[in-house]
Design goal:
alpha/beta, 45% helix, 12 helices, 4-hydroxy-tetrahydrodipicolinate synthase activity, Aldolase_TIM, cytoplasm, eight-stranded parallel barrel, 293 residues
């Protein structure tokens, strides 16, 4: 249903932490001009954890309006409360999102049966297409392939973002689920290899700053053109690493501010702005990736 380079969009903020509407508009235009295939609004990279409900809904609706149907908009609506996730997913559907991305419940450590019932309940209550999101390094909760296989039988669960970076895990999901559910990479460093294995695209942090390159990498890998994909991937390898030298989205917000999108101080506590220690490495990686700094 969704394909290619899907940017996990930051939520631009002013130095005082307020939403930066002008930067958001410019950033969406930047992606529409540079080949991004879908925009994920208010996922974890979009600081969903520190936006209140009204802000969360506002950003999703604003991105939908700015995109104006040119590419799909996928709203981050996951929560560790099933009732809250249902509410946010329902709002996203009302506000025009094309799908929702639902991170596994964090902190409360549900069993695999609990995860199955969580996602099943949301899918039954809200008809919008839904993408599962597994990132155990952040959530302390691992959605296993056998549970993905069970969930693949639910018609509006259409994909899974697998962010472990474990290619064997991706291969297992593909073998179990076939074409019943789409697999997406959630790890920029291994996205090329996962797409070559059969994943349908990459939900990407790196695409925030190099949308054209990430789109071209996804196109090449989806076509089975390893040589072209690997050449692009090599230019992005240092950037993929540097954007995670500090907790996401701290480095990517600094990089985008350096490119003219928002204020590098525009991030909410408990995260703090990018430290001076990593800026030279990040800047070098940006230049290697072809960004005019």
């Amino acid at each position: 249903m969704f394909r290619g380079s899907m940017v996990a969009l930051i939520t631009p903020m002013q130095a005082n932490g307020e939403l930066d509407e002008a930067a958001l508009e410019a950033l969406v235009a930047f992606h529409l001009e540079n080949g991004t295939d879908a925009i994920v609004a208010v996922g974890t990279t979009g600081e969903s954890a520190t936006l209140d409900y009204q802000e969360h809904r506002h950003v999703v609706k604003r991105v939908v309006d700015l995109v104006a149907g040119k590419v799909p908009v996928i709203a981050g609506t996951g929560s560790n409360s099933t009732a809250e996730a249902i509410e946010m997913t329902s709002y996203a559907m009302q506000d025009g999102a094309d799908a929702c991305l639902l991170v596994t419940p964090y902190y409360n450590k549900p069993t695999q049966e609990g995860l199955f019932q969580h996602y099943k309940t949301i899918a039954e209550r809200v008809a919008i297409p839904q993408i599962l999101y597994n990132v155990p390094g952040r959530t302390a909760c691992d959605l296993l392939p056998e549970t993905v296989e069970r969930l693949a039988s639910i018609s509006n669960i259409v994909g899974v973002k697998e962010a472990t970076g474990n290619l064997d895990r991706g291969r297992d999901i593909l073998q179990r689920c076939g074409d019943r559910i789409d697999l997406y990479s959630g790890d920029d460093a291994t996205a090329m290899e996962l797409i070559l294995l059969g994943a349908k695209g990459n939900i990407s942090v790196t695409a925030n700053v190099v949308p054209k390159s990430m789109h071209e990498l996804c196109v090449a890998a989806s076509a089975g053109d390893r040589e072209t994909a690997a050449r692009i991937d090599a230019t992005l390898a240092d950037l993929n690493k540097s954007l995670f030298l500090e907790p996401n989205p701290v480095p990517v917000k600094w990089a985008l501010a350096h490119m003219g999108f928002g204020d590098e101080r525009g991030i909410r506590l408990p995260l703090v702005p990018c430290s001076d220690a990593i800026k030279p490495q990040l800047l070098a990686a940006m230049r290697k990736a072809g960004i005019d700094c």
